[in-house]
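Researcher: Quick sanity check before group meeting.
Model: Go ahead. Protein one:
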Amino acid sequence: MNLSFSTNAFVGFSVPEAIEIIAKAGYSGVEILADVPHLYPYSTTAVELAAIASSLEKNRIRAANLNANTAVGWYRAKFWEPLFEPSLANPDKSARKWRVEYTKKCIDMAEVLSCPNISVTSGRMVPGVRPERSAALLKGSILEIVEYAASKGIRVAMEYEPGLLVERAEEMASLIGEVGAQNFGVNLDLGHSHLAGESPAHVAQMFGRGIFHIHIEDIKDRKHYHLIPGEGQIDFEAIYLALTQIHYEGFITVELYTFPENPEQAAQKAFDYLVKIFTVGQ
């Protein structure tokens, strides 16, 4: 297992700056935000991508995941709600198509950065649209995306979250089975899983090798607010045991977008806490 940290905490820094800080903290991987102010695919140039690839090599750190969950750049604003729109299940055909094309561009960027996977979400349910209709639209989008990703050698990992169309492990496992593509799996956020009342052992056994990437953060009082590991109630030793039982060897990314004012301290504190629990490969 390898520890990684997400740049979505470093929105006040450039990606190369964030990479250097994250590497110095001790992490062997970095998850890069595929959105403003980082790698928004409609504004990131080939020169900028090359500079990031060079920064990864210089700092001896790997791209663990390209986070394509949000599309804040679509809004051209400083505050965005709803965060996950336009989603892969959006009932508007043109909006849904935009999201599919955006995701394909994220796959292109992942290929350049030798990043093994991108992560996506289902988005929220839309009032007036039945869940089964949204699920059918989502599946159609995913089928198109995973076919494109396979041609590039990239995996697509979906993250489920309470309040979204796909919000529980069983729903995620069902979708993986319906899509039936080897390069489609789960981006398992164990904080979200905790909020859903799921045990680490249960979800680890359910997904097994279908876990392409992992997000972790701490949670307190079942409130969906990402805390630095060690400051909430999640049992990280139980997580470590569950992952060792399925022989998980991928990246575990700490996601603390809730700490944009002091990401350097948050990253270091999280690493110092987690390295005592996880056997970290280099």
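Researcher: Fine. The other one?
Model: Protein two, sequence then structure:
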Amino acid sequence: MDKKVLDWLLAGPAWLKYAVELQLLDLKPDVTPLLRDSAIRKLISRLKGSSAGIPAIKSGKVHYTESGKAYWDLFLLADIGLTVSDLGLESEAEEIFRFQSREGTFTIPPNVQDNYFCMSAILIASLAKMGYRDDPRVIKYARSAMSAQMPGGGWDCYGDSYGGSGDSCPMDDMNLLMLLGQYLQYRENPQLDGAIEHLLGHWEIGNNRYGFGVGKRFRSLQYPAVKYGILRVLDVLSLFPYAMKSRGFRDMLDYVRAKAKDGRYFAESADMGYTDFDFSQTAEPSRWITFLVGRVEKRVEEG
């Protein structure tokens, strides 16, 4: 990354500086200044709350499609590099595990059934990033997901109900790869090549039976990626050496790189659930979007 861009990132708010030092510079930054940041304090408070936080999940008030609520608040904090212990969210994490079955799957209100891995994986992948990667309950969930893999290598909430086509849902594949990519034994496991190929093929073909496309909305840089979008697809695929060697991955990354202005990236869609963060506006370059692209590029360089 260009030094001017890096210095610009480090001049950002405490939470951004923390993420850059931890994930781009491989330092061990002090978490204390970040925990004093007003935007982070508000986010923690919202996550602990009974209207949009983790305690509200059991009431069915919180859905995975809604930004500014528990699923994506936890996702953001995990992306920054914070742990559950840093944030004092241990009891909230245990509330999530109460939805886990003996088999390792999760049934979460209002409508996340045990085979809806795409939805539960958002929460469990975040917890894995936040210090729970080696927790037996997370490992059990990952094994359950692997046992539910379709013959073609991906996942589908509806199982093999489309005439044995072996096709899979891009959202299922992306969210489960987001979790499994945190483990060396899965990152280099050819059993996941099929799911990776489905995501790469979707970019090249442009559509699938689920109605996911790769048009303007997919190609826009936005965060958090509540919808299926290019930035999170790249982020997830960059966890896998097999994916990074592919032409489709390079094409996607080149497409994103072409959007840079002096090495900086703009959010192309504003999310009003996160008005305290720079990715919620489109008028000025976003340090966070720039950081995310830089993180992908770092994995490519090291890969």
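Researcher: One line on it for the slide.
Model: The chain has a mean pLDDT of 93.
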